[in-house]
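PROTOCOL LOG
Step 1. Enter all chains and additional molecules of the complex.
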Amino acid sequence: MIMAQTAAISQGMKAARRRENIAAYIFMAPSLLFFLGFVVFPMGMCLVTSFFNYTMSDFSFVGLANYQEMFGDAIFIRALINTIIIVVVSVPITCMFSLWVASIIYKMRQVNTSFFRCVFYLPVVTGSVAVTVVWKWIFNNYTGVLNYLAKNLGLIAKNVNWLGDPNTALWCIITILLTTSVGQPIVLYVSALANVDHSLVEAASVDGATSMQTFWRIKWPQIMPTTLYILVITTINSFQCFALIQLLTSGGPNNSTQTIMYYIYYEAFKLNRYGYGSAMGIILAIIIALFSAIQFRLAKTDNG
Amino acid sequence: MTAIPKNASSRPSKRAPEVDTTDHSVHALTPYRVISVVLLIVLTILFIFPLYWIITGSFKTQQAVNARVPVWFPVEPTIGNYERLFQKPAFLWLFNTVLLCAASMGLTCVSASMGGYALAKKNFRGRTFLFSLFVCAMALPKQVILIPLLKEMAFLKLHNTLWAVILPTVGWPFGVFLMKQFCEGIPNEMLEAARIDGAGEARTFIDIILPMIKPGIGALAIFTFITAWNDYFLQLIMLNDTDVLSISLGIAKLQSELSTDYGLIMAGAALGSIPIIIIFLLFQKFFTRGITMGAVKG
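Step 2. Run joint prediction.
Step 3. Record the structure below.
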């Protein structure tokens, strides 16, 4: 009797379980369809095509040849170095700058906080193309504001061709990249700082801690997860810097602003070398994953 | 770079003293704070300057644009740049952009709120696996998959249509992730109560879940709209013909064809950015929430 009852109950539970599974998958279906079809599938294909010589006319298996070619390709090496320079310079600056801005504005009145948050988010919303074309004008050799100001302030003797000079072009790119990447970190830091446990901060100030001590000992560890997230997204974004390059310099002059993302675009969509482009894409993904892993490790040890 | 032209600094100064005074009234006037706020105002001017330059530039005459001494404000404004802009299919480009953003937004909100609900509240087989897959995909550079994506769209005969941009945007897992965060805030008791009352799955979702995650959907909607508007790389790969271009591509095309006609290019840039800036300012609160919620427990 009892046995039969438990059996019936477990039967019922199984049925309920199944119903729950089915319902869950029906709810998941639309997002899963888009996700598998337009993210996971292409990712798999990217890996597959990286082992093929894939052009307009050819599709043949070449094993690791694409990967081998890459490391003998001087332009790829140049692109890799430039990309790493961009990341190594822009990520720490973005992070520190946004933390500094957020630490000033988060205590202000709501209106003022929103105002500054908007100001620094503006270049992101304006869009990479609109931002880039106006900067191209600002940097222009003859009609640009930058040359005019720099000359009048006595910083330069004669007009500098900012984007045409291999010594300055990459720094121009990094400058624009910085203005377009601090918006989101500032928003995140403002909310993280506002959520810091106030009782700890008060306890620290009662104990006579200076505001610097309070910041580094109490607030900094608490906003560590936000810092980590910001590091990771900024790294991904900096690695993928593309629109700026394509619209400002096309990788020039003399490959001085060549980045991996732009080189992938050039090889795959201009020269139709899809296999080689895919292989570079895979390497880029691996490099980004490595950088993120390193940041996680560093953040952990920093915290402990 | 930190130098500010006299004329440019007079513009936002309307707000600047206001910020200064409120700040001093609320906080102790330490030297660090004074220097910081001054620096912040300088930076504000620098960050607003490109937008100011786009808007004023779009009203400048050819001579003013090419002047060796920058014309800080267009004293003789002209709409000639806009007239020339609208001789190109600029309206169509704008329309295409709005259409693709709206479609991406709608589809993302529907699929992500359903998926996020299932991930947060349903205990189904494969849930952990799927969730890890979503998170891993988000950490990958999405531009890397453009090559196979282009081939896939060509195969589906969608290349050179707006769908080629819409579908990958909807597939991006950020939305599901964000909606999962919001759905986790719904108390389980409410779902049980609904079940006891005999509400079916669809009923529960529409009558109980949706009203509770409305702010989340708002955040996701505005976030998707703005992201889609500015996703230049994806648009560049997928859209080629003049009549399917987005406004970003249109501006880029103008720039590559008439690289020194800055007046016209600035008019294009203004057309491409002012609408989205207005949308951003209107829905700023939702947007901020979307960004912060997406980051919690990243």
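Step 4. Note key features.
The first helix of chain A runs from residue 2 to 49.
The beta strands of chain A are 52-54, 59-61.
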